[in-house]
Fold this protein.
Amino acid sequence: MTFVIPTAVNLMTTAHGSDARARGGFSEGTPTAGSKVNGNLPITSNAASMTVSNGDGFEGLYWEFLASGGYDVSTDTKIMIGTWQFNAPNRIECDTAANDGIVVRIGTGSGSPPTNYRTFQIGGNDKVAGQARENPKMWVIDLNDDSHEAVAGTFDNTDVQCWGYGLTGLDLGGSTSLSFFQRAFVLDTTKNASDIPRFTGASDWGDCITAMGTTHSTKITDEWLKREGAVFSIACPVEFGDNSTSTQFDDAGASVFWPDHDDAADPRVRVTEQAFRVYLNLRNNAADTADFAGFYDCGNSYPPWDFDQDDAAVVTFDSPTFKRTGQFDVGSSITGPATWDDCGIVWCMDNGVDLDGSTFRNPHGDHLLRLEA
């Protein structure tokens, strides 16, 4: 059983001043970032901690993604996932989201701090992130998303170099510690890319939770991969197989949900329709199998699904339901009925596709089903 989580771009275990990826700050006061030991996020010996010297005002810090240079996402986007937790209950009050209660900035160019960036208001005392402080909170930002609330300079998506976290605090309650940080990820969203989460081997959805770690020193304690019984919540693209490793995936009837994009009550997820793409990428081998019987709800970003597998691999649809997908490409390796509800076009890519007994519901005014000539 295998589910691969790409390597984090920053483990966030050192003070900002000691972090080789530090890229300056933005503030009305003087923010710094120390490190706190034992039992933090992630659960290792240290966790990055942002502190301030005054009790209020706008405070923030930047970290670069790569040791040098930036990402060119002008052709294919990437998504950045980060997680933070406030210091302790009732110690921090942040302002409303519109007043920059909690923001993430995505910066381009080599400035330290950058002068070209987009600001995403992801939380505040009037939003989910900012009202509760008892558990880690994630953000998911598509490096091409344009739902930002503010922009400075000229954003260059051929040179995306850094991210920043900021908070407008109203009352620190005697503590100058704002937030603790967890490891940060940048994930690919294209088929067979090196940094896309994927299943190989004899696997099921439970393996994505196992892959997060099983001991106090390795477990990733954030919320972008979660499980409650047979219900899974994920906030990333996914690939089944890698076209080179033997894969036998079985979803065991699980229900899988992706988060909504730019929810008015909880705007931590800012993605394009390309961010949460799903791929089938098995070998051309009858030993490679994938069985789908579960329920899949893609949130309101309607990502495309590429299941254009048309070779010896064996893929079975045992009445799964796909909800709110974008275009769904289906290859001849797939047989069996499924339901597509509130989805884009289901495109049968070649002559051997057998979806007898399927149900198609598309309220968007375009075609329900397309057959490749």
In short: The helical segments are 128-131, 206-210.
